[in-house]
Amino acid sequence: MRICVVGLGYVGLSNAVILAQHNDVVAVDTDPGRVASVSQRESPLGDPELAWFLANEDLRLTATMDLAAAAQGAHYILIATPTDYDPASNCFDTSSVEHVICSARAMNPDAAIVIRSTIPVGFVEHIRAQLNTQQVLFSPEFLRESHALKDSLHPSRIVVGERSSRARTFANLLCEGARSTNIPVLLTNPREAEAIKLFSNAYLAMRVAFFNELDSFALARGMNSRQIIEGVGHDPRIGDHYNNPSFGYGGYCLPKDTRQLLASYSEVPQNMIRAIVEANRTRMDFLADRISALAPGTVGIHRLVMKAGSDNYRHSPVLDIMSRLRDRGIEMLVHEPLLSEDRFMGARVIEDFAAFKELSDVIIANRVTAALADVADKVFTRDIFGED
Question: Keyword Nucleotidyltransferase, does the record have it (predicted)?
Answer without folding.
Answer: no
